[in-house]
Design goal:
Blueprint (H helix, E strand, L loop, with lengths): L7 E6 L6 H14 L5 E6 L5 H4 L8 H11 L6 H12 L1 E2 L3 E5 L10 H15 L4 E6 L4 H5 L4 E9 L3 H16 L3 E12 L5 H13 L2 E8 L2 H8 L12 H13 L4
Parallel strand pairs: 1-5, 1-6, 2-4, 2-5, 6-7, 7-8
Antiparallel strand pairs: 3-4
């Protein structure tokens, strides 16, 4: 399993369009700037673009390595050894954190042994880090692929809509079906207009009352983030006085204190 005494696992989840990956980038910025390093970030969303928000280029994904392992493992080398060598080569190194990209899920004909080997190699790799941050897709299938069974904090991201909050509650419930042990499930409502609509507040309270989610807070819609994303610039360069930074860092600080 991808868990150990050295790495606390933080996972991000949310349906497409909520700004989940944006908040993952801001979480990495928070961990680095508060000295909670080293961090291994894993982009486990099939629509991978975390690297763009971090200003990094991707040469190879873990999915590509897994597929190559099936046919390219040299004679005399085990598949585990092949995966370990190539995963280490796929680690994108940055200041205070490293990044790995999962890539597209497998097509028809599941190759369960490959995913099992991937999980074993990831477990060994993650021992070198203080935090393992997983930017996950809404369905969270990648939690199974990585064999994650214990998560310190699951941040579930919603947009400012009734349907978005309801979907966030359903996503949080998926961890039970996957039999994942989650220390805390935190709801973040992103891209919120100001002032916060009373109706949105009511939907949030209802979702928290009816699930095991706790409410982390609201993050306002940010023109600075929009401009950075349009210019394809790293969110790591956002100034500390930005409202989106103070709001998101405040949430992270509340729920990651023991880190």
């Amino acid at each position: 399993m991808v868990q150990n005494q050295g790495a606390s696992v933080i996972a991000m989840a949310g349906k497409g369009g909520t700004g989940k990956t944006t908040l993952t980038a801001l979480l990495i910025k928070y961990l680095v700037e508060t000295g909670k390093t080293p961090v291994l970030a894993v982009d486990a969303d099939a629509n991978a673009n975390l690297n763009e928000l971090l200003g990094l280029d991707v040469d190879v994904t873990l999915g590509e390595i897994r597929d190559r392992m099936k046919t390219e493992t040299p004679q005399g080398m085990t598949k585990n050894e092949f995966m370990e060598i190539h995963i280490n080569q796929a680690v994108i190194e940055a200041k205070g954190f490293d990044l790995l990209v999962m890539g597209q899920p497998e097509g028809p004909g599941c190759y369960c042994m490959a995913n099992s080997i991937l999980a074993q190699v990831m477990e060994k790799l993650s021992r070198n880090y203080r935090y393992l941050v997983v930017d996950n897709e809404a369905g969270m299938e990648h939690l199974s692929r990585l064999n994650l069974r214990k998560i310190h904090t699951l941040f579930v991201v919603s947009d400012p809509s009734a349907r978005g909050v309801l979907t966030a509650a359903r996503i949080a419930d998926l961890t039970k079906a996957l039999q994942v042990d989650v220390g805390q499930k935190v709801l973040i409502v992103n891209r919120v207009p100001e002032p916060v609509p009373d109706a949105l507040d009511e939907h949030v309270k209802k979702a928290v009352d009816q699930t095991d989610l706790v409410f982390g807070g609201y993050v306002s819609a940010s023109p600075e983030v929009f401009e950075k994303e349009m210019a394809q610039e790293s969110l790591l360069d956002l100034p500390d006085e930005s409202k989106v930074i103070t709001q998101s860092f405040g949430i992270f600080d509340r729920f990651l204190k023991e880190g």
